[in-house]
Design a protein that fits this description.
The protein has two domains: 178 residues, HUPs (Rossmann fold), CATH 3.40.50; 93 residues, Pantoate-beta-alanine ligase, C-terminal domain (Pantoate--beta-alanine Ligase, Chain: A,domain 2, 2-Layer Sandwich), CATH 3.30.1300.10. The chain is 36% helix and 19% strand. It has nine helices and ten strands. Helix 7 links the parallel strand 6 and strand 7. The structure holds adenosine monophosphate.
Length: 295
Amino acid sequence: MGLSPLQSIHMTEKNSIKVVDKIKDMQTLSSNIRKEGRIISFVPTMGALHEGHLSLIRKAKEKGEFLVVSIFVNPTQFGPNEDYKKYTRDLESDLRKIKEIGVDVVFSPDINEIYPDGFETYVEVQELQKPLCGQFRPGHFKGVGTIVLKLFNIVKPDIAIFGEKDYQQLKIIQKMARDLHLEIEVIGLPIIREDDGLALSSRNAYLSKKEREQARALSEALGEIRMRFNQGQNDISDLIHEGREVLNKSLIYDIDYLEIRNGNTLEGKEKAKSGDLVAIAAKIGHTRLIDNIKL
Ligand code: AMP
């Protein structure tokens, strides 16, 4: 019998889940698992887990032989006036939520572990980061690309799973993987929604009761656009106009964007066609929410 891959790795056990917080330990563990020829599947998250995250984690369990989930609220993807400080952090509660799934290890590093003094290397996907959220959150995708590449180098996954909820992020990570020859299959999974259509998000917890009611208009606006497209309308400015009416009826006026773009390249266009992406970002009170659907 060889040594167990977990031998000599420093980890704690919380809620019967193994938690690793040092990069070196995670790297050694992943190398040991890979040496055994086992497939590592990986779901990166910022915690505050909900059914959307759990759907990715369940799929990752199915697809791999050793499942790693990371929980790290990444400072470099937040703008100066965004919610980095108030973002929900509750490791114990997150671990409880994933207990039944059979996660092999949670990687939950400290900020100084990931960004030690003097850190200065970043990754950017030049074109894909420009439209949509890129216009409104300068530096956001630079932070996302950088943390995901770091996590990939730490966890060494064969398969990584992301949600289509953050559609532009998914496309950026897939492009980064291709451009930098990462030997990682990056899979996107559908958005999980509340019964009234609102996409699950850790940020929904910030909404007041009234705002929560308003928030359903985001998915309704996307649905309206898709319905009109299915009825034969394809002029994008008309379709967007209809979508905005739905938002305005719910008193949502603070709209960063409501756009239809090519679903692969994210390029803008004038006429909609099947497979295009309809994406929205809007503020409800102080809370910025995003959502999207495909035509
Ligand atoms: P976050 O913790 O917000 O960084 O999200 C971690 C992962 O969960 C990302 O790949 C998100 O796209 C995904 N995700 C977040 N919300 C949902 C949702 N409602 N449905 C499916 N995936 C989601």
